[in-house]
Design goal:
By secondary structure, the chain is an alpha/beta fold. The protein has 9 helices and 13 strands. The chain is globular, with a radius of gyration of 22 Å. 41% of the residues are buried.
Length: 276
């Protein structure tokens, strides 16, 4: 009899644990609502996706999405707090509960998916190479034995580490440092998301995106802390609603087109209902 009571007590305790665990999972969206503030990790120096303008305000494609999510949560006066981050800290700020969602041009990879929960993608990207027009790198093999600039914590760093060990990687924390190093001639080329390189090369005409796509095309998506299912589901629903309204093409026209000009097809970058 005692054994049966003990077993029943263990089952009840287990059920209570699972219930409380599930409740904690479901609390992620409610916690944001109760706080009255959506905290979003964004870049400070990666135009046109996330950057700080001369007035000290965050601007860019990711920022437009963050503001739309804040408006959907809290109405027109909804508060969105931007937490500036670097590429290698995009997961850390989630794990440390410093932000609710990361919208820092975050490429989905299997390795990252094991650490965070990614939402519905809203953008396409691939690794590209930018190099001087007077010494263009048009073949990845030409980088063997040479120095290539990458940013820490990016897909470019992981791709070249894994697939091109003969390339010497010069790594930087900040985009501004990386591009300054390229302009100073400290490396043969720089690897980064092609969507960013198009904009940079347009403003630095002595350079060219000499290789536009390396490896597979990837997608950009929001990320939340592992297990924040309620918040993730809500974000996914909102992104699908925004896509049905062609929001991301509008955001492209506002934030990206001024950087890219008319030479880039927005359907090659943004993901809306019309081109999924």
């Amino acid at each position: 009899m005692k054994h049966r009571h003990h077993k029943a007590a263990l089952l009840l305790a287990g059920a209570a644990f699972l219930f409380n665990y599930a409740a904690a999972e479901d609390d992620s969206l409610q916690a944001v609502k109760d706080r009255g503030e959506l905290r979003v990790a964004v870049f400070s120096d990666k135009p046109p996706f996330g950057y700080v303008d001369r007035e000290g305000h965050s601007q860019g494609y990711d920022i437009e999405l963050a503001k739309a999510l804040g408006k959907a949560l809290f109405g027109t006066d909804g508060k969105v707090t931007f937490v500036l981050t670097e590429a290698q800290n995009r997961i850390n700020v989630l794990d440390a509960n410093k932000v609710d969602v990361t919208l820092a041009n975050f490429t989905v990879t299997p390795e990252r998916s094991a650490q965070v929960d990614f939402g519905h993608p809203y953008m396409k990207t691939a690794i590209g190479i930018v190099s001087p027009k007077n010494a263009p790198v048009t073949d990845v093999a030409a980088l063997d034995g040479n120095v290539l600039i990458v940013n820490k914590g990016t897909t470019s760093e992981s791709y070249f580490t894994q697939h091109h060990p003969k390339v010497t990687l010069q790594k930087y924390d900040h985009n501004s440092e990386a591009f300054a190093a390229l302009k100073d001639g400290r490396a043969k080329a720089l690897a980064h998301d092609n969507t960013m390189l198009y904009a940079w090369a347009k403003n630095n005409p002595e350079f060219d995106v000499s290789i536009q796509v390396i490896g597979n095309e990837d997608v950009i998506a929001p990320a939340v802390k592992k297990g924040n299912t309620a918040l993730l589901n809500w974000i996914n629903d909102e992104i699908k609603t925004l896509q049905s309204q062609e929001f991301f093409h509008q955001a492209y026209d506002k934030t990206m087109k001024p950087f890219y000009g008319d030479n880039i097809n927005p359907d090659n970058i943004v993901i809306d209902a019309s081109n999924q």
